Structures are given as structure tokens and as C-alpha cells.
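Narrative of activities, Objective 1.

The group set out to show that a structural description can be obtained from nothing but a protein's sequence at a throughput compatible with the screening campaign. Below is one input-output pair from the validation batch, recorded exactly as produced.
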Amino acid sequence: MFAKLQHRALQAAQLFLVGIFFCFPVSLAATNILMAIMLIAWLLAGQFKTRWQSVQNNHITLPALMLYAWSFWVRPTARPAAQKCCSP
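Output recorded for this entry:
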């Protein structure tokens, strides 16, 4: 019973991931909602140890996750509108 629920949650997470890619150019709000639902479905799917092992064995996934984590620490600073224009 629990394994069937995990399998269905994983399938739902995969479908929501496809939906995210279709909604991204159209609506950012829909993308954020689908991303939250996908994360919940992915967490319900479980099997975290095997997923982490597949991340470690993939040569692209780990650097991509590190780049994503780095983006939270490095934020571009926005300048006020008055400083954008050159003053005489």
C-alpha cells in the first residue's frame, strides 16, 4: 500500500515537473504553484538515500545543485533609480 503511494507520488512529481517547464514562459505564478506541489509530491515519494546516490553518481547534477545553492548567497545589488542616470 505504502509503496504504491510512493510510486504514484513520484509519477505526480514527474508530471508536475513537465508542467513547470510548460508554464514557465507563460506564468511565473503558475510555475511557483506547480513547483510547490511537485516538491510535496517528491517528498511523499521517499527513497531519499537512493536519490542522493543517483545525484552523487551523476556528473552534471551535483555541480548544477551547487550552482543553484550558490545563487542564494550571491545576490546582485540593485542600485536606486537616481544612480542609474549619469548626472552632469
